[in-house]
Amino acid sequence: MAIGEVTGVHMRDDCIRDGRFDVTAFQPLSRLGYRDYARVTELFSLDRPGS
Questions:
Q1: Residue 50: its pLDDT value, please?
Q2: Which residues contact 8 (CB under 8 A, 6 or more apart)?
Q3: Superkingdom of this entry's organism (predicted)?
C-alpha cells in the first residue's frame, strides 16, 4: 500500500474540452494482465445507487 499527497497535476491542453479533461481524447493505456492491454475509446456514466 502506498499513501501520499498529490501536490500537482499536469494535463495536456488538447485534452481539455469545456473545462473538463476528455479521457477519450487522451486514450489512456491500461495493463489488464498477462500480455493484454486496453485503450479507452468510449466513455459512459452511471448514476450512483440511491440518487
A1: 85
A2: none
A3: Bacteria
H or E segment to which residue 37 belongs: strand 36-39
The residues pairing with 18 across neighbouring beta strands, listed in sequence order, are none
**Nine cell digits for residue 50:** 440511491
- C-alpha dihedral sign at 28, 7, 12, 15: positive
Q: How far is CA 50 from CA 44, 45, in A?
A: 19, 15
pLDDT (tens digit per residue) in 1-51: 999 999 999 999 999 999 999 999 999 999 999 999 999 999 899 999 986
Q: Quote the CA–CA distance of 48 and 38 in Å, as a whole number.
A: 25
